[in-house]
Amino acid sequence: MPRRFADKVALIAGGTGGLGRAVTMAFLEEGASVIVPYRRQPEMDSLTRFAGDLRSQLHGYFADLADDSAASDFIGNLLGAEGRLDVVVNAVGAYAGGAKLWQTDAAEFDRMLAVNLRAGFALLHAALPPLVKRGGGVIINVASRAALDHSGAAAGYVASKAAAVAMIDSLAADLKGTGVRANSILPGIIDTEANRRAMPTADFAKWPKPEAIARIILFLCSDEAALINGAAIPVYGDA
Question: Domains in the chain, start-ordered, CATH in brackets?
Answer without folding.
Answer: 9-232 (3.40.50.720)
